[in-house]
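Review box. Two proteins, two foldings.
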Amino acid sequence: MRLVFSSLMILLLLSPGCKDQSRETPKKAAVPALKKKFPLPNLPKSAFIRKKISQLDVEDYTKIPLNSVLKDLKKARGHEIERAQKVFMAQPEKAVPLLVSLLDNSDNLTRIHAVRLLGDLMPHSKHSLPAVLKRLHEEKITKILSMVIDSLRKMAPHSPALERDLLALLSSPSPLVVWQAAKSLGVFGKKATKSIEGLKKLLTAKENYIRLTAATSLWQISGNLEGFMAIKKDMEDPDRNFRKLFITTLSKLPPEPLVMEFYIRALNDKAIPLRRMAALALKKLGPKAKKTLDTLREAAKHKDYSLRKYSLEAIAAIEKSN
């Protein structure tokens, strides 16, 4: 009897009604699902981030006083100078006279930014040409002088006086100034025939980029590729970036036999990316590049997938007319 009673007590104690409610784990209230307030569009993450960053740039630059950003022109780089440039570009009518007044500023960075902005503000800045020409004769800092020439290339039409000034600068001790002057003379085209002899002397310059610019300007002025014939060896320059610049320049030239010879050399360049560049350029030339077919067929056997692909596409474009 005692055993039966003990068993009943145990059953009662273990029944659900006799559990210690204080020890039960309270059930958590259901948390309602949060609705996405800003659902992500169907864009790659990096593209979405760039889009959001671009949306942050909501300043109205037309309403920012120019004087409030003048101090930022004394900075070489950074957010402040970029913002200042946007303010000046957004208010050309007010900006031009202020920038002209800054051409004589004692701060070098202010002067270089002022002259560059005047070039970028064309045609609004066309009436400031005399002031920029004055700087061409008075500027002593070579970096600023090179920027003056760069802006004049955007602002000034050909004149015998300006051609003489630029021709004289081909003898400057600063390679940067020489390069800018040679480049500007080429932009004048056939009007700058008096500069041909001076440019020819630069074909033996120490700096490879000056030699290439001189050859390009001579072609722009005379219409022939004699300058490029003189710098054929530059296609083998150890500087890969220069060889890349050379190949890029070829796309501006007529598809004459010499240019095709340069492309054939480029297709055999030791740098695979430069070979790809050449193949892509030949694809654009199409039937005009028939002389490069044999070299393209060899390139189409290369282990590099992209080079094979671009070479086959170039071959197809060249043979399309056949």
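Next protein.
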Amino acid sequence: MKSWKTTLGGILVAAGQLLAPSLPPNYTWVSATLTGLGGLILGVSARDNKVSTAEARSK
């Protein structure tokens, strides 16, 4: 686990998708919120190592 931020984002996305079928219809917003927040966290923190693509390939 290199980045706790990307891991947290992935867990939230997965939890939102797993909860969707088991929630009552008036609580589906919980699933959508978890999935959206997880995706946002995941997308924002995916390149948190502050290196360019060329530098990342050379490692």
